[in-house]
Write a structure and sequence with these properties.
This protein has 402 residues and is α/β, with parallel strands linked by helices. The chain contains 14 helices and 16 strands. The strands form 4 sheets. The protein has a 7-stranded mixed sheet with strand order 4-12-11-10-7-5-6, sandwiched between helices. It has a 4-stranded mixed sheet with strand order 1-2-3-14, with helices on one face. It has a 3-stranded antiparallel sheet with strand order 13-16-15. Helix 3 packs parallel to helix 11 and helix 6 runs parallel beside helix 7. One of its GO terms (biological process) is tetrapyrrole biosynthetic process.
Length: 402
């Protein structure tokens, strides 16, 4: 077997199917907010980004930038080791205490990535709870899937947001069987919320623990911005809440919050946590400043929710089809990988708008889409101009209307 030729063939197949990913060389600047400089082979160009997860534009907020700058000057960049070997700083301690308070939980634990948080926590629960059965929504994130696999527990997959199916699966296991229901509050590729209250009720009736991924709702929902569970008044009824800083909080890293026993078990037994270099102290300082800013000031989340409502109304008026209109994440349905890429390319080349196409296998084949994410720094005029451009491209390519 010619290994390198085989890999070339795999890449060629991805390109033929419209699944080959390309990446823009972007210079995001705090002063530009929703705009960025695109460094291409044809020169530099200012574009408007419509696919960033920096929903509240916290990555460039003065409080965050100031905290990071001060921490770099004070302690330098890296921590010099994993958490157990010189990698725990005063910033890590302060942020974990802040996060526990933020979510109303006894304890919190930081990770270098959100992916790592899910992988570590779920793998430990699977390994350390004998006989555990994990019930997982079929559209759960890859990090959740990886964590469940790593734990080795038996898994049962319930249809997306189908509480009736979840109840039937739970009923197949007696009260003596330990159970864990794992789901997300907001599925970012679908743009839809889970029926969180109904899932929690079903889990409680079956005596199951719950694990909720709030990555895409933290900062945007809830009276203090701690997520969708807070908005619904359900935080106290959920066992473990996981989230991160790479979306609404504008930084990087992930975390879990929950009971002392769960958090300490993950801290003690998760291989990826124990042997990974800890988050850089200035990054942690920036995350701490972001959480504190979000908790005391609702202005950014009010702005992003206003812009998303405006965007959805304008798309509805133009009859441009959406996968869901539930949330601040607005997935525009194209349904073909090559057309999805063409829409993205034309928006960029002709109008200066960057929206990454999302094709299979990230989403099911035939449901290819543009995942549009307005931020708090997009203006009403930005929304109007973007919808006008998308409507023109939609007509030029003769795409079907809703």
């Amino acid at each position: 077997m010619d290994a390198l030729a085989h890999l070339d063939g795999e890449i060629a197949t991805a390109k033929r199917l419209g699944r080959y990913r390309t990446y823009l060389n972007l210079e995001r600047r705090a002063d530009l907010a929703s705009r960025a400089i695109w460094h291409s082979g044809e020169g530099d160009r200012e574009i408007v980004v419509w696919c960033s997860n920096d929903y509240l534009a916290m990555s460039g907020h003065p409080a965050v930038v100031g905290a990071v700058t001060e921490a770099v000057r004070t302690v330098g960049l890296g921590t010099g080791g994993p958490r157990s070997i010189s990698g725990t700083s005063v910033y890590h301690h302060a942020l974990e205490a802040e996060l526990a308070s933020f979510h109303g939980k006894p304890r919190a634990l930081l990770f270098s990535t959100g992916f790592g948080a899910n992988e570590a926590a779920l793998s430990v629960l699977g390994k350390k709870l004998p006989g555990l059965v994990v019930f997982s929504d079929e559209l759960n994130h890859a990090s959740i899937i990886q964590g469940i696999k790593g734990g080795g527990a038996r898994k049962r997959i319930f249809r997306h947001n189908d509480v009736g199916h979840l109840r039937r699966l739970l009923a197949e296991h007696g009260p003596e069987v330990p159970k864990l229901v794992v789901f997300e509050s907001l599925y970012s590729m679908e743009g839809d919320f889970s029926p969180t209250a109904e899932i929690v009720e079903a889990a409680e009736e079956a005596g199951a623990l719950t694990y909720l991924d709030e990555v895409h709702t933290v900062g945007v929902y809830g009276a203090t911005g701690s997520g969708y569970a807070e908005e619904l008044g359900l935080r106290d009824r959920i066992t473990v809440i996981m989230a991160g800083f790479g979306k609404g909080l504008g930084g990087s890293g992930g975390y879990i919050t929950g009971p002392e026993a769960v958090v300490d078990a993950v801290r003690s037994f998760a291989t990826s946590f124990v042997f990974s270099t800890s988050l850089a102290a200035p990054v942690v300082a920036g995350a701490l400043a972001s959480v504190r800013q979000v908790r005391r000031d609702p202005a950014q989340r009010e702005a992003v929710r206003a812009r998303s409502a405006q965007l959805k109304a304008a798309l509805h008026e133009r009859r441009i089809p959406l996968v869901s209109a539930d949330s601040h994440v607005v997935p525009v349905l194209v349904g073909d990988p090559h057309l999805c890429k063409r829409v993205s390319e034309r928006l960029l080349a002709e109008h200066g708008y960057y929206v990454q196409p999302v094709n299979a296998p990230t989403v099911p084949e035939g449901t290819e889409r543009l995942r549009v994410t307005p931020t708090s720094r997009h203006t009403p005029d930005d929304v109007t101009a973007f919808v006008d451009a998308l409507d023109q491209v939609w007509s030029d390519l003769a795409l079907p209307r809703a």
